[in-house]
Write a structure and sequence with these properties.
CATH superfamily of the largest domain: PAS domain
Oligomer: single chain
Largest sheet: 6 strands, antiparallel
Number of helices: 23
CATH class of the largest domain: Alpha Beta
Distance between the termini: 108 Å
Number of domains: 5
Number of strands: 27
CATH topology of the largest domain: Beta-Lactamase
Strand content: 25-35%
CATH architecture of the largest domain: 2-Layer Sandwich
Structural class: alpha+beta
C-alpha cells in the first residue's frame, strides 16, 4: 500500500524502477560502509578514551601519594638536629607541611618500641596516640614496619583498619643511629580522602567504574558493586611506595550506550528507507530534465540593432531571435544558439524566476528582474531584464530587453563581501567590540554579550557607564567628556566592570573616535584580563614565598653547571663555606672546594648518567682553609627550553657528627681493651636484654665463644 502511494506521486508514463533501484543499491552500499566504519570508529574512540582516563587516573594517584611520601624523608633529615630535642618544633613543621600538602590524615612519630608517641594533628586521631603497633590488629602493618627496619627504606602498608577509625594505609620511614633503629616517621592516609583528591573528576565518576586493588587481588577501592565486564576496560599498574597497585577503569553501561547509540540498527534501517525515497526522486528529476532537453527548439534569426540584448521568445521561453550585440558580447555562435531555451542561458536560481513568469503570462504580461546568465556552463554576469508579451499574426511571443550590469553588480558584491568580511571579523573576535554615542550602545558584538552577561537587546537599552564599577565610573566619565570636547583623553586604560550577575571583572579598554552613520561616535575594544591579573599576583606571591624559603632554609642550597660554575647559592651555603657574599663565592669553581678530586669526579659522572637523587658524604675546604665534612644530596636538572644541564643540591654540615662518631669509636675501642684485661665478667645488653658485648673473661668463664653469646643470647 505504501509503495503504491509513493509510485502515484510520479507520472506512470516513462517511469521505470530499474534506474532508481540501481541508484538505491549504490547509495545503500555507500551508507552501509559508512555506518560500519562509523560504528568501529566510535568503539575505538571509546576504548582510547578509557585508556586515556586510566593513564590520567594512574598518574594522578601515583604522583599525589608518592609526593606526600617524600615528606617523611624531609622530616627524617632534620630529626637528629632539630626534632629529637624539641617535639614542639616537629609539631609546628608538620602543621605547616599539612597546610601545603592536603589530603594527609596524620603524620606521626613512632619510637623504636613501635609505640606512637607523637600524633599530628591530634584532633580526629586521638585513638592512635600511645598505641603499640606490636598489637595492631592487621598483621600487614607489622610486616611493613619490620620490612622498613630490614631494608632501611620507606615502606607502605596495604589498606587496613586505622587505629583512629576508618580504612586507610600508611608509610613507615625508619631512622637509624649507629646502625640501630630509633624511630619511624609515619604518614597516614584515609581511603575516603584519597578518593576525594585523586578521583574527584566529575566526568570520571559519572561515566566510568573505577577499581583499585593490590597485585594479590585485595580490594582498595571500587566505585560500583558490579564487576567489570565490557570490552573497553583498561588496566594500569602504579607504584605506591614499595608496593604496586592495579587500577582498572571501565565505562558505565549508560556511557557506552550514549556513545554508541547512533549506530543502532533502527537508525540504519531508517536511513535505507530515506535513501530509497531520495533515489526515486533523483531519478525522476533526471528523467524530466532529459526530456526537457529533447524538447528544446533551435535558435531563430537575429535582430540587427540595439546596444542592449534583445531576444524574441516563444511563450515557453524558446529563443526565436537575438540581436548582434548579444553575439558580440557573449561570443556565442549562431549555430550554438539554435533551439535553445532562454532559461538555458541562466543559472538555476534565475531559471526558476523566469519560468515562474512564463507560467503566469496571462495574469502578468510584463516582467522585470535581475537575472544571472552563464556562458559555456559558467556564470558570466548579471542582466537587468525587462519583458513584455506581444501578439501578431503568428500568435503570442515575448520581447525581452536585457542590459548587462555585470560590472556594476561585481563592484556591489565586492563591497558587500568586504563589509561582510569585516563584520565576521568583528563578530568572531575574542575581544569585545562596541560603538556608542551619548552613553548608548549603537553596536555590540557577541564577545561583549558574553563578557557582560547581558543580551544584546538589554545592552542597547542601558547606559554604557552602568557596566563600570562605581569607584571607576567618575574617571571614565571624565575621559568621555574630554574626548567629546576634543581634549586629551587616554586611548588605553584598565578598569573594572560589573556583569549582569554582579561578578567583578578587570578589563583593558582601547577606544577611539570614529565617524559612524554620518555622526561622531566612539569605537572601543574590551579584553577581560581578570585571569591574567590573578595569575600575575599569584605568581608574585609564589615567587616571594619560595624566595623566602630559599633564603631562610637552614641548609645550604646551590645550583651549578656541569663545569662547576656556581649559578645560585643561599645564605646558609655562604655561611657553611665561610664566604661573605655570593659574588665572592661565584668567583670560584665548586669542584675546587673538594679535597678529594677522585670523589667529585665519580659523583659528577653518577649525576650525569642517572636522573635519580644521590647523596654522598665528602670533605670540603672552607674559605679560611679549614676542612669540613658535608652531606651532599644532589640531582641533575635539565632546562626544558635551553636543554642546559645543571646540578642542584643540598649541603649539610656533618663535621660535628663525624667527630662525635670518631670519638665514640675510639672510646669503645679503649673500653673494650680495658674490659678484656679485667679478671671479671663485663657485658652490655640492649633494652630487650640481648647481649651486645662480653669480655674475654666472661667467655672463658661460661664456656661459650664470643660469637655464640652475641648471636641472640639473652642475659637471663
Amino acid at each position: 500500500m505504501i509503495s503504491k502511494r509513493i509510485l502515484n506521486i510520479f507520472p506512470k508514463k516513462g517511469f521505470s524502477l530499474i534506474g532508481p533501484l540501481i541508484l538505491f543499491f549504490l547509495l545503500a552500499f555507500i551508507l552501509s560502509f559508512l555506518w560500519l566504519h562509523d560504528r568501529e570508529q566510535k568503539r575505538q574512540s571509546l576504548k582510547e578514551l578509557t585508556g586515556l582516563m586510566t593513564e590520567q587516573t594512574s598518574f594522578r594517584l601515583e604522583s599525589w601519594i608518592n609526593q606526600r611520601f617524600t615528606i617523611a624523608d624531609y622530616l627524617a633529615l632534620n630529626w637528629t638536629e632539630q626534632y629529637a630535642q624539641s617535639s614542639q618544633k616537629f609539631k609546628k613543621d608538620v602543621a605547616n607541611l599539612l597546610k601545603i600538602y592536603s589530603g594527609i590524615q596524620a603524620i606521626n612519630w613512632i619510637d623504636a618500641d613501635w609505640t606512637i608517641r607523637i600524633v599530628n594533628p591530634l584532633e580526629g586521631n586521638e585513638q592512635a596516640l600511645n598505641k603499640d603497633l606490636h598489637f595492631h590488629p592487621a598483621q600487614s602493618v607489622k610486616t611493613a614496619i619490620q620490612k622498613a627496619i630490614d631494608s632501611k627504606k620507606i615502606t607502605c602498608s596495604p589498606v587496613v583498619p586505622l587505629l583512629q577509625g576508618g580504612q586507610g594505609f600508611a608509610s613507615y620511614r625508619p631512622l637509624f643511629q649507629n646502625e640501630q633503629i630509633f624511630g619511624f616517621i609515619n604518614v597516614v592516609f584515609k581511603t575516603d580522602t584519597l578518593i576525594k583528591y585523586c578521583l574527584g573528576n566529575p566526568f570520571l565518576r559519572q561515566n566510568f567504574k573505577v577499581k583499585i586493588t593490590t597485585l594479590d587481588g585485595d580490594s582498595i577501592f571500587q566505585s560500583a558493586p558490579s564487576l567489570i565486564v565490557s570490552e573497553y576496560y583498561q588496566e594500569s599498574l602504579v607504584k605506591i611506595g614499595d608496593q604496586y597497585w592495579k587500577v582498572t577503569i571501565d565505562p558505565t553501561e549508560n556511557f557506552i550506550k550514549s556513545q554508541l547509540d547512533v549506530t543502532k540498527d533502527k537508525y540504519f534501517i531508517l536511513n535505507l528507507i530515506f535513501v530509497l525515497i531520495i533515489s526515486i526522486l533523483i531519478w525522476n528529476v533526471l528523467l524530466r530534465h532529459y526530456k526537457l532537453q529533447q524538447s528544446e527548439q533551435r535558435f531563430r534569426s537575429l535582430f540587427e540593432s540595439a546596444n542592449i540584448w534583445i531576444h524574441l521568445l516563444k511563450t515557453d521561453g524558446t529563443i526565436l531571435r537575438a540581436n548582434p550585440i548579444f553575439f558580440q558580447q557573449t561570443k556565442i555562435r549562431l549555430d550554438k544558439l539554435e533551439g535553445k531555451n532562454f532559461t538555458e542561458l541562466l543559472t538555476a536560481k534565475s531559471q526558476r524566476i523566469f519560468k515562474q513568469w512564463l507560467m503566469h503570462l496571462t495574469e502578468q504580461p510584463e516582467f522585470r528582474s535581475e537575472l544571472e546568465f552563464k556562458i559555456k556552463g559558467r556564470k558570466s554576469g548579471i542582466i537587468d531584464c525587462s519583458g513584455v508579451v506581444i501578439e501578431n499574426e503568428s500568435g503570442k511571443s515575448i520581447v525581452l530587453y536585457s542590459n548587462n550590469v555585470t560590472d556594476k553588480k561585481r563592484f556591489e558584491k565586492a563591497l558587500n563581501e568586504s563589509e561582510e568580511k569585516y563584520r565576521q571579523i568583528v563578530e568572531q573576535s575574542h575581544d569585545a567590540i562596541f560603538i556608542y554615542r551619548n552613553n548608548k550602545f549603537l553596536f555590540v558584538n557577541e564577545s561583549l554579550k558574553t563578557l557582560s552577561g547581558y543580551d544584546k537587546e538589554e545592552l542597547y537599552k542601558i547606559d554604557i557607564f552602568q557596566l563600570i564599577h562605581p569607584d571607576d565610573r567618575d574617571k571614565l566619565v571624565n575621559f568621555a567628556n574630554a574626548r567629546k570636547k576634543g581634549s586629551f583623553s587616554p586611548h588605553q586604560y584598565t578598569t573594572r566592570i560589573i556583569t549582569k550577575s554582579g561578578k567583578l571583572k578587570i578589563c583593558e579598554f582601547n577606544v577611539n573616535t570614529i565617524l559612524y552613520q554620518g555622526k561622531t561616535a566612539v569605537l572601543g575594544t574590551v579584553r577581560d584580563i581578570t585571569k591574567e591579573r590573578e595569575a600575575h599576583f599569584a605568581l608574585q606571591e609564589s615567587e616571594k614565598r619560595y624566595r623566602n624559603l630559599f633564603e631562610n632554609v637552614p641548609v645550604g642550597l646551590y645550583r651549578i653547571t656541569q663545569d662547576g660554575n656556581i649559578i645560585a647559592a643561599n645564605p646558609a651555603m655562604l655561611k657553611l663555606l665561610g664566604y661573605d657574599s655570593f659574588d665572592e663565592l661565584n668567583k670560584i669553581n665548586f669542584f675546587s672546594l673538594y679535597t678529594d678530586k677522585k670523589t667529585y669526579t665519580l659523583w659528577k659522572n653518577l649525576l650525569k648518567f642517572s636522573e635519580k637523587q644521590h647523596t654522598h658524604e665528602t670533605r670540603l675546604k672552607r674559605k679560611d682553609g679549614n676542612i669540613i665534612w658535608v652531606r651532599d644530596t644532589a640531582k641533575i636538572y635539565r632546562d626544558a627550553e635551553t636543554n642546559e644541564v645543571y646540578f642542584e643540591g643540598v649541603l649539610e654540615d656533618i663535621t660535628e657528627q663525624k667527630k662525635a662518631k670518631d670519638q665514640l669509636v675510639e672510646s669503645e675501642r679503649r673500653f673494650k681493651e680495658m674490659a678484656n684485661l679485667l679478671p671479671q665478667c663485663v657485658f652490655e645488653s640492649d633494652p630487650k636484654l640481648r647481649l651486645t658485648y662480653v669480655n674475654s673473661f666472661a667467655t672463658r668463664l661460661v664456656g661459650y665463644s664470643q660469637h655464640e653469646m652475641l648471636n641472640g643470647m639473652n642475659i637471663l
